[in-house]
Structure formats: C-alpha cells, structure tokens
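Q: I have 163 residues here and want to know how they pack in 3D. Can you give me a structure?
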Amino acid sequence: MTDDTVNVEKIMEEIRREIKEKGLSNDLLSFEDIPVPDKISTLTDAIGVFDRQNFLNSNKVLNNSYRVSLWQPLYGNRLKLFIKKILRQLIRPITQPVIEEQTAFNSAVMRNLNEIRNYILNDDDGVRSGDQRYIELLKRLEKLEKENSELKQLISKFMKQLP
C-alpha cells in the first residue's frame, strides 16, 4: 500500500530554501521603484488630461468620417480597371455585411460621443452656477463663524457674571 499523505512542512521547507537560494524577498515595490519612461506615447499622453477644445475638434472630425465605404476610386489601365471591377463585384457579398456592421458600430459610438459632447457643453453652465454657489457658501460660512465667535464671547462674559 502506498502512502498518499502530503508532507506540507517538507514542501514549505523546500520552497523557503529555493527562495533563499535565489535571493528573492517578499518586499513590495513602491511606485517610485517602478521605472517610467520620460516620454510617453502620444496616445497615452492624453490619458488623464481633458482638453475640451481638442475633444470638440476630434468630435467634429469623427462626425464626418464614421462611415465605411467599399467603393473607392479605382485606378489603372483599362485591363486592370476591368479586373478590379470584377473582383469588387465578386467580393461584395462577403464584404458588404461587414462594412454595414462596422458603419452601424461607428454610428453608435458617434451618437454616444455626441451625447458626451452635449453633456460637456451643457454642464458648463452647471459648473459656473456651482462655482457661484460655492462662493456664496464660503461667504455664509465666514459670516456664521463670525457670529459663532461673537456668541462664544457673549457666553464667556455671561458666565463670568454668574455667582
């Protein structure tokens, strides 16, 4: 009969020995220990920084270019043009559904981006009114702190007058 028991302590000792031999430690890296390149690609440069004007310009360009078209102008001599037209007609049943799906997807993405654009444009008024409300609340807080200080002084004087 074979012994199917597992000696966990023995396995753990082997693992600890291997870790010690390899010089590994379980210290976690801090963010400062992770090397970051000085120049990040232009795609990731924009992440985390919102440029309103850049967003609106990109949105305008994308609104005019979300459609995918199979029909591009064909160039070449008469024989090449004839062959290209025949090939285009042959592959149309295969490519047309894909192109329609891609255009539908692009259209849905653009509708969502336009909603985001509208939200940003309409939210400007909310931000401005929020800023104004913030200033009003700061003034009110200052006034209430002044009243609180005056009330504390009155209570202090009143407490001194009590026997």
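Q: Anything worth noting?
A: Residues 78-161 form the longest helix (84 residues). Residues 8-36+49-161 form one domain.
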